[in-house]
Automatic annotation (TrEMBL):
Domain PAS: 160-190
Protein name from the UniProt record: SpoIIE family protein phosphatase
InterPro entries the UniProt entry points to: Bact_Sigma-Reg, GAF, GAF-like_dom_sf, HATPase_C_sf, HATPase_dom, PAS, PAS-like_dom_sf, PAS_fold
Pfam families assigned: GAF_2 (PF13185), GAF_3 (PF13492), HATPase_c_2 (PF13581), PAS (PF00989), SpoIIE (PF07228)
Organism of this sequence: Streptomyces sannanensis
NCBIfam families: sensory_box
Gene3D superfamilies named among the record's database cross-references: 3.30.450.40, Histidine kinase-like ATPase, C-terminal domain, PAS domain, PPM-type phosphatase domain
Keywords: Hydrolase
Amino acid sequence: MITARAAASFDPVGRSVATARAFVRDTLQGWGYADIVDDAVVLTSELVTNAVIHAGTRAEVLCLRTDDGVKVEVADRYPEREIPLQGAGPAFHSPDGENGRGLLLCAALASAWGVEYTPTDKRVWFRLDLPERPVGTRSAGPVLPTELLPVAEPRVRVAVVQIDRVGTISSWNDDAEAVFGYPAEQVTGKPLTDLAAWPHTPGIGTGIAEALQLSRWEGSYGIRGADGRVISVYASHLRVRDAEGEPSTVCLLVRDDERAVLQTPVRAASPDGNGPFADSRTTDPFEVFIGSPAPDDLDGLLQRTVERARDMLDGDSAFLLLATDDETELEVRATTGLPSARQRFARVPVEAGTGRYGSARMPAVHEDLAAVPGAVPLLDGTGMRSVVTVPLKVEGRLTGSLGVAAESPSRYSNEEALRLQFAADRIALAVESARLGELERLRRGSLSFLVEASDLLAGTLDRDQTLALMAQMTVPTLATWCAVYTIADQVSEPYLSYVLHEDEERIDDLKALLSKIDPPEPVPTPGARIWNAPSEAAHHAALRTSMHELGLGAVPTLGTGLDGTFATAAAVGGETVVLPLVARNRVIGMLTLGKPSDDHFRQENLELAEDLSRRAALALDNARLYSERMAISRSLQRSLLPPGLPPIPGVEVEVIYRAAGEGNEVGGDFYDLFPIRDGAYGFAIGDVCGTGPEAAAVTGLARHALRLLAREGYGGPAVLERLNAAILDEGARSRFLTLLYGELWPQADGGAILKVVCAGHPLPLRLRQDGTVAPAAEPQPLLGVMDDLELYEQTVTLGPGDVLLCVTDGVTERREGTRMLGDDGLTEVLKSCTGLTAGAVAARVLRAVERFAAEPASDDMAILAMRVPEPRKG
């Protein structure tokens, strides 16, 4: 006869095999069938591997408990794929062959096994019988070598202490005296609280006095011995009453390190109702929760709890929900016998309606859910008919809800509700303690995550890189997929700027889907809000694709094949939330996070995503402002330089300009070359002190004033004197300016005559055809300092093959530590340029400057080279 069942479904991915093994192991251990756990796990592993890896479908695992053993069924959705039968070929008989190895193991290990086919699935099952054990043997372990046995004192002592109604010690046995050093007469009549060192859990006020009032309690604490030292003990408290009805508490205490030597075995419920749960007044109704030590992690503890609760009431499913911090909602954290992947982290309201049946704060029994649809939202569509739910409370505060459900109606009564409530009261403190521990770990992890995210976001001012970082930090840490919408201004529509999925092959399909639906509304309200449009669009697309497959005329709406459409529907079929990106009181975009296949977000993850969205919004807005500033700077820099160089007959001209920094500041270096009148050309190269808007203003003034004054017929000295006066008129906005200005007249005989004025600028160098280099002008005062300047021009004649090199101080002041290129270094570079064209001369000078130091240049550089070419021979 089947006395209990447990079922789970596993996706067709490799990690499902390990998950299935853990499911079967925990289920059988919970039923007390430790003797056959190993064989069941091995067989399940092989059969699930065959389903999810070889058949490529979901695997349904069903465990059925009987009086004398267990039956495990593994079903897949590929009935057409036949399994190898005995005698079908050498692969089946060979231990090294892959095909049929699971069935070989079934034949070798199982008491019985078989295969069942239906039109929709294939089911492989095996049965393992419990081994016969001597009378009085509940379970047995293997024979171990002596050196592997746990270490204990020569005698394991169990201290038995009895506590009366008011908490004073009324009985103290010899083992208690041996362990703690107090004789019975010394401690009898004293409160146990005088001896106990109770480890309070932060946030929970329960003490040992409260624990002694519980019907049963287990845990660790300390007892102060006669020598003053605290001795750690593992204690079991049991509340009893004597024949006259006087209550007292019996405490069994062993040394904490002997807990590994003595463990209370699991006692399963008797299926005929005559077992240890038949009468809660005379037996302990909570033995189902005693067994191997509780898991250290919260999820393991919750899963163990729902499995034991289901077994205790012989239900078909069980679930446990934890309350949010404000106690307005409950979050699904563990289920058994239900589609847990679909329900995990789903949220339901604490107050679902009026009356005791509508509130999770009170125990409730629903005899038939068909009569009250929606009474337990978690069970909608699961086939469960009757359910009993009880609250988990700590110090009167709701911390969760525990429920057990059955497929048949009228299964539970108030008696089962009372038993489940006792169990919930016993486990509530442990659950809350584990929840607080998990919450603390999550908060620490969240702080580390936000610190790292802030560092990454602060490390870039590039808009596209910021968008990529936002998505990469959320996927897969917080969500399965992410989409970032940006808004250019208040009147613009949200634009889909970036899409990322943890499966790179689905990014294009996801982007195609999102581009076909309206973007979410840019609501500035903080916090995450549900957005159903993506999942609805994906499901509609999958439905149309199914109709197309059936020949009903519909066609897919996505730009993918049929498989891609279904994959996209699964990828975005879960919960989707939108978080606004608000910076400087303006919505600049939306961060959209999604889960696959009906999955839900944890509340803690949503809060973390909200914190991240605030940082990401500011980083994105900073990147936008920086990009705008850089674009303005580049546009202004281009306006300060000539759009092009005019061709000069008989003279080669080459200009190289390099701005230092990242391009977000307008440099002070400039150059110009322009026609003055027929046969005459003006040229200039200068450097304004400083950078930024003030330097740009002087640069623009100088370049345009030079052209205007030169074309009005003024000579070089007059042009610079008037420019000096204009700079001084700027007042506080004026800047010093070094300037080399000259006029050029190409000659018919192949040479060129130049008249130059060097106002505080690095001197121009002339390279003669014979390789000698010398300054081509004398230094004169710079501009923007004195009112009265007396400048003069000097004449320079360039013959065929001669070069005139003009540079800004970014070239001559190039540094490497204490070394500087200087005028002498530039002269040596120029000497090596004999016979080169103007372009080659400028390129060689630039290469020499760049190679002089390993660090990037810290100052702008401008290089102007003019050369009179040699006449062609022949």
